Automatic annotation (TrEMBL):
InterPro entries: Ald_DH/histidinol_DH, Ald_DH_C, Aldehyde_DH_dom, MeMal-semiAld_DH. Residues 2-54 form the Aldehyde dehydrogenase domain. Belongs to the aldehyde dehydrogenase family. It comes from Amycolatopsis coloradensis. This is Aldehyde dehydrogenase domain-containing protein. It holds the Pfam family Aldedh. It comes from the Bacteria.
């Protein structure tokens, strides 16, 4: 994207967004990005591969949102 505003709007327009990352030399852009995007996981200048896991103690369930 050309601007942080465009990137934030694109991410927030996707109802299935789970995670995203920003690569920037601007602390201001990174702070705005992490405050304003609406996803569960956000990376800022992360390494090429980052794995985040969570192993809940409940039975596995698979629920996929559907569009109407």
């Amino acid at each position: 994207m050309s601007t942080v505003d465009e990137a934030i709007a694109l991410i927030n327009a996707n109802p299935y967004g789970n995670g995203t990352a920003i690569f920037s030399g601007s602390g201001e852009a990174a702070r705005r990005f992490q405050r304003e995007v609406k996803v569960g996981m956000i990376g800022v200048n992360t390494r090429a591969k980052v794995v985040t896991t969570r192993w809940p103690h409940t039975a596995a369930g698979f629920h996929f949102p559907t569009s109407s």
